[in-house]
Predict the structure.
Amino acid sequence: MDATIPCLDAVWQVARLAAGEGQEPEDLVQETYLRAYAAFGSYRGGDMRAWLATICLNVARSQARRRRRRLWEVPGGSLLDALPGSSAERADGAADVADVVIAGLDADEVARCLSLLPEPQRMCIVMMDVAGYTAREAAEVLGCPRGTVLARVHRGRRKLAQLLAEAGVSHGQP
Amino acid sequence: MDNHDRLLSAFLAGDLSLEAARRWDEHLLECERCWRAVREDWAGKQAAQLMRQPVPSGLADRVAFAVEVASAERSVEAPQAIPLASPRHGRHATRRSWRLAAAGLTVASVAAGLIVALVPGGHETTGLPAAVAAVARYAQAIPAPARGSHWNPRVPAAPIEVGRPARVVVGGQRIVLRTWRLGGAEAVVAVSGRPFSRPARARGVSGMGMAWTARVGRLDMYCLNGRTSELVAASVPAAELAALAARLPTG
């Protein structure tokens, strides 16, 4: 169980991005550990980080449900809808999305654009790129095949990059 | 997702064999669509990694304290429900491991300046309401005053906060714990939106409505229940605790 100690960072990253409106990430982490403690008798071994992340997401969802609001709710219309086609269609004469994104990275903007992604893609990105879970661990937590996680994280990253590029262009950045 | 996309995902995940990866490298030189996809994947990943934030310095303490409080609550409320040993799952070992894990969390963050009582037992908190017991255990970790050092109500200095606030939920009651140093004394101030239940051995404070005092080990506790309830614990004579509490911030 000493394995729980290094898990705190990963659980914290998941909790920060899983916390809905009115939820404090620190409360979520604490509740995760309390439930893990209470359920430890039924823990059958396996990946401790994945187990804690599963609990964290379940707590976030059940608390959000109690507040009668959807978790990962996208505020207003999706900015994706306003994007002009796919990157391939915009290839001619358009600025390279990756260059635009890297040139103008801003944490607040990233958070905003991340919140616009469909929940499955957003969750895969949070698990793998933010919290540092492997695709296999993320698959275990999210209850889907590893290949699905990889596909979602790939699509999510591309959409995130496109959203950020769009935002960067609209703010007058290169 | 077509086969082309599947291969691209496998390439990005590092799942392709050396030979297949080499073919994809060559393909990327010629295929604008795939090259753009790889670049965007990389840019999205870089951007997402910006969202990482370090764990707040007090969180490990808070989690450890909460687990310890839950552990103490369980052993008080339903000792028969928590067998010391289970031949099937080795529950005793796992619970002890949890305590070790909790202790490890705290040890790792003592440098942050928070002191948390972790080891159950040895504290005179048995029979207290859970929230009061939690505050008492937290406050019992404050070192006893040095010899010759004692609370002096005439010292005009402003209180100085020691360490960082800790938050804990005990039996559904949210409590914020802060430690203050004032006039030769150190006191823990616990604030909650719900009243602190009065222990059986507590005494009411005359003229103060829902206020009570109680002695727990070397600590005296003073509670003023109201819209926001405040519980002060310190090694200060009970008669002077109300005066000390009045000088400590509760916000």
